[in-house]
Amino acid sequence: MTDTAPRPTLEAVAARAGVSRATVSRVVNGGDGVRDVLVERVRRAVDELGYVPNQAARSLVTRRHDAIAVVVAEPETRVFADPFFALQLRGISKELTAHDNQLVLLLTEGRNDHARVGRYLAGGHVDGALVFSLHLDDPLPELIQRAGIPTVFGGRPGWSGDRRGVVYVDSDNRGGARDAVRHLAGLGRTRIAHITGALDQTSAADRLDGYRDVMGDADPRLIAEADFTPAGGERAMRELLDRCPDVDAVFAANDLTASGALRVLRESGRRVPDDIAVIGFDDMLPVAEQTDPPLTTVRQDIEEMGRLMARLLLRDLDRGTSHAASDEGVGDPPSSVVLPTTLVRRASA
């Protein structure tokens, strides 16, 4: 057994820096009113002594935990298998880390998990929440509203009820889908099919609407429902070939769906793009560049979406902290953001 060295105290930092304990407290807790030269001396003393602020004590001063819940309304088998979630989480993590905040990941494996997540959010463990991949019948928005914590959503809200004050980050799903289908039509394709995503999510519904904007009264047999997974893309592609063997183009709701469709087309002996052109959505490079052939797709900046979600939430939290300290509103509340999309041409269309 070895003796453990005592943790440096606030008083020790003050003595090393030659300032008062109150000055050290203001510096380490992010307060104002300390001259730059003293801030530098305190920070140097903190580094030399290896001082780590007591989070509980700091929270009493700042009213912040410096922890953000990231709630993904999907089971872990989906989250850890789909690169979309990895990209969005990476963007969130980068932004939170840059502002010295911790990421607390909460997944919902099933209905029983919703109450658990709601209790955790209401329990004062985190300053706010970032929530994405919601489904239309998901109880999470109501539970989050009850918890009363600042929240930013990933994706356009699709639930009924009062949406005033709801902040979200999304991509132009409908416009991107229109671009994809117009490109296929511009190639001279006339039997353009669509494999949807999970239609209880607004991103899938918006992409279906974009397809219909271009195709108008297309043969309903050219629309096959899937679920944003490769297996769903395989099932839907087989359905399309069975009922519409003359299909000459496919717009898939995401890259994973497109990868499943490409496998079925290859097995059926159809050449891509000679016989059937294929376009996906997302431009996830681990998928789009490794399909056979490489996938033409609609690019949305998934990592930037995550960064923006975190940035908007932190801005709202800073605004709330400043308001609490001064009793005056500071800055405007954050507004929702819809990012543009871009068609990326590769060999599949």
Description:
With 349 residues, the protein is an alpha/beta fold. It has 14 helices and 12 strands. The chain has helices spanning 10-17, 21-28, 36-49, 55-62, 76-79, 83-98, 111-122, 140-147, 173-186, 202-215, 230-243, 255-267, 285-288, 302-326; strands spanning 67-72, 102-107, 128-132, 151-154, 167-171, 192-195, 223-224, 249-252, 277-282, 296-299, 337-339, 342-344. It has a 6-stranded parallel beta sheet, with helices on both faces. The chain has a 6-stranded mixed beta sheet with strand order 7-6-8-9-10-12, sandwiched between helices. Helix 12 links the parallel strand 8 and strand 9 (277-282). Helix 2 (21-28) crosses helix 3 (36-49). It starts with 9 loop residues before the first helix and ends in a 5-residue tail after the last strand. Residues 323-329 have low confidence and may be disordered.
